[in-house]
Write a sequence for this structure.
């Protein structure tokens, strides 16, 4: 997979050189390049914003630099990802969808956002997806890019040492993951649930599933409605 990020704060994306993302880049699993949007400005002040038509507070990102940036970076295989509070919810399902694509271009906006014509023009030549991490307001989209790139990269084949890790985690299968424990067996007078030390893998799997169902029912009933529950799950909820 290739990823290009265009930002007025390219240094914000430095964490994409670290840890497993850095490893994926080193292995050639992920090809990633960060660009400074001001590269595509043509005035002495390298201007990227201007006042909004129709009035109102703040500034809007000018279309010309973005247009020239996308002209250079986009290919026929590109999908433009625009992190914005006005976007569709970014979920594990969306992460899986994006992880299957050949080329993602991220356009994190600043100020009051990017001139809408940039997205509308881009949509005439590539897929455009506006995605939101949540219902809150940030200074810009760069931190959202870090989150989305991490969520996608860990799904790419060869990145996680044990692909089984993807099976039992939260939101895979629509449920939150069960609580996890490690040594010592007792910590500050709190024992690890006995079943986890029983060695009975069938009972352990059923216990973990029950815990996931109960935790999801308590914290995220919205997910439970969409989850694929079996009779045993329903019995757990009705106990
Ligand atoms: N919430 C927000 C924002 O305020 C600015 C850019 C991106 C996002 N987001 O992805 O959620």
């Amino acid at each position: 997979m290739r990823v290009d990020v265009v930002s007025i704060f390219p240094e914000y994306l430095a964490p994409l050189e670290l840890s497993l993302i850095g490893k994926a880049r080193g292995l050639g699993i992920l090809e990633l390049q960060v660009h400074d949007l001001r590269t595509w400005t043509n005035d002495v002040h390298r201007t990227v914003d201007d006042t909004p038509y129709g009035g109102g507070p703040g500034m809007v990102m000018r279309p010309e630099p973005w247009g020239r940036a996308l002209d250079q970076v986009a290919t026929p295989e590109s999908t433009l990802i625009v992190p914005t509070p006005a976007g569709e919810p970014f979920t594990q399902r969306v992460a899986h969808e994006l992880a299957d694509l050949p080329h993602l271009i991220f356009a994190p906006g600043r100020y009051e956002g990017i001139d809408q014509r940039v997205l509308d023009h881009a949509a005439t030549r590539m897929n455009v997806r506006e995605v939101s991490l949540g219902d809150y307001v940030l200074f810009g989209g760069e931190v959202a890019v870090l989150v989305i790139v991490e969520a996608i990269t860990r799904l790419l084949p060869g990145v996680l040492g044990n692909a089984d890790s993807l099976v039992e985690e939260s939101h895979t299968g629509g449920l939150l993951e069960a609580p996890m424990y490690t040594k010592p067996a007792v910590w500050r007078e709190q024992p690890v649930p006995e079943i986890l030390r029983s060695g009975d893998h069938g009972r352990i799997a059923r216990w973990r599933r029950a815990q996931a169902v109960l935790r999801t029912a308590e914290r995220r009933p919205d997910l439970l409605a969409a989850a694929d529950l079996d009779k045993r799950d329903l019995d757990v909820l009705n106990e």
